[in-house]
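in:
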């Protein structure tokens, strides 16, 4: 797979990807059938590129586009409940200019933050196969390479955690027994001084059951803010 030379080229190339026929068929089917509340809207229905500040010091890695969220709007974590949690926290901690994300024309902008995912197509039942994740990995690898200022990475859920460790090379560079552990707000300083913060995913399965509370969620982004503010060149606040 050919590596992309810029984020702009990468983000133009991702929507044209056809590596995973099962996922592409699912995205098209969801876009055709639609959810009742969104039947008057046109769905994106394609792989979703990353979103944010090319000079970001914070990288967020999620699981995959939601069927009626990013698969509808064409922007990561936009138009669903997980995105509501994410962008509200990013606004609260100074990484976004507004707390709401409804569509690509809503005026949302990120500062010092870039959002990516382990898979770029909405998977059936939110479960991409290991083969599909491997097929998609080169996009995250390119982002890791092209986002040259990242100081802290927040990984949402175990799949996002493993996807980033593999894409960044740490999965094989570190012995299995010494890999960073996954658990909510577990923080690891890697040998290159990148700080990895693991978090539960803000899915309804976690937020509606209390497994992930607002306080727990804010703790993750307070920690990320602290790392960014300690990084040379961070803007004064």
């Amino acid at each position: 797979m050919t590596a992309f030379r810029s984020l702009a080229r990468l983000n133009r190339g991702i929507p044209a990807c056809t590596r995973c026929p099962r996922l592409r068929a699912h995205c098209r089917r969801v876009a055709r059938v639609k959810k009742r509340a969104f039947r008057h809207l046109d769905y994106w229905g394609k792989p979703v590129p990353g979103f944010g500040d090319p000079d970001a010091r914070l990288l967020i890695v999620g699981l995959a586009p939601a069927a009626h969220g990013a698969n509808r709007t064409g922007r990561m974590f936009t138009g669903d409940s997980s995105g509501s949690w994410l962008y509200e926290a990013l606004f609260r901690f100074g990484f976004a200019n507004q707390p709401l994300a409804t569509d690509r024309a809503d005026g949302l902008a990120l500062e010092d933050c870039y959002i990516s995912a382990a898979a770029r197509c909405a998977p059936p039942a939110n479960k991409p196969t290991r083969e599909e994740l491997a097929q998609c990995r080169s996009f995250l690898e390119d982002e890791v390479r092209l986002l040259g200022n990242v100081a802290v990475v927040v990984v949402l859920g175990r799949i996002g955690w493993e996807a980033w460790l593999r894409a960044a090379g740490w999965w094989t560079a570190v012995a299995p027994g010494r890999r960073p552990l996954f658990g909510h707000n577990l923080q690891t300083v890697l040998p290159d001084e990148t700080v990895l913060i693991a978090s539960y995913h803000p899915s309804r399965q976690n937020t509606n059951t209390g497994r992930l509370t607002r306080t727990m969620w804010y703790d993750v982004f307070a920690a990320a803010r602290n790392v960014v503010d300690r990084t040379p060149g961070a803007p004064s606040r």
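note: The chain has one domain: 7-230.
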